[in-house]
Amino acid sequence: MRVEFRECDFFNVWIWLRFETVPSSLEQQYIDEVFSSWFFLGKLGGFNAENLQVQDTGLDISYMPYDESQLDNSLLSVMHNMGEVEYQGVWARCWFDLGTSDALALDVLINALEQFSREYVVIESCYIGGENPDWPIPRNRRPEFVDAEDD
Fold first, then answer.
1. What's the angle, vertex CA 111, arms to CA 18 and CA 26, rounded to 5?
2. Phi, psi of 3 (to 5 degrees)
3. DSSP E strands: which ranges in 10-109?
4. Which of 42, 116, 118, 131 has the most C-beta neighbours closer than 10 Å?
C-alpha cells in the first residue's frame, strides 16, 4: 500500500483509499469498521503521545510501575468528529476532525490499513488530506451534516 500525504489540517482532513478492485458490500462494512474503531479510540483520547509509558519502557514491561498521575499531567488529546465513509468505484473517502489527537493516530491507522490490505481487501493507495480532482469535496471541505450547523 502506497501512502501519500497531501495538504493536511487536523481539524478538517479527508482520508482517501484507492482499492485494487471495487470493494463489495461486505468489504465496505469492514472498511467502515476500521475507520469507526480508529475514530472511537481517538474520541476516547487513545492517541496521546504525551503518555506512552509502556512504549517508552521497552520490551521488558514485567512489573513495570505505571504512573497514573502522568495521565492527569498530559494535555487532552481527543478526536472530535467523523463523517460517513463514502464510496465511488475503487475509491473510498472519509472526513475527520482529528481535534487535538497526536500524529501517532495516523501512524496507527496506516499500520492497521496496511495489515487490512494484506488480509482482506487490497488497498493500492492511502492519501491523507487533500482532494481528488475527479471527486470534489463539499464546498466548505466538510460533510453535509456539518454545513447544517454552520447555517
1. 50
2. -120, 130
3. 13-19, 81-82, 86-88, 91-97
4. 42
- Sign for the pseudo-dihedral over CA of 36, 11, 90, 127: negative
List Cα–Cα distances, 149 to 143, 144, 145, in angstroms.
11, 9, 7
Q: Are 123 and 1 in contact (CB under 8 A)?
A: yes
User: Is the Cα torsion angle 53, 55, 58, 59 positive or negative in sign?
Assistant: positive
Residue 27 belongs to what H/E stretch? helix 25-43
Q: In the beta sheet, which residues pair with residue 97?
A: 81
Task: Give residue 57's pLDDT.
Answer: 80
In the predicted model, residues of the chain with pLDDT beneath 70 are 140-151
**What element of type H or E holds 103?**
none
CA distance linking residue 115 with residue 123, whole number of Å: 10
SS3 assignment, position 19: strand
Q: Which residues contact 144 (CB under 8 A, 6 or more apart)?
A: 138
Give CA 115 to chain center in angstroms. Answer: 14
CA distance linking residue 121 with residue 107, whole number of Å: 19
| This prediction's pTM | 0.84
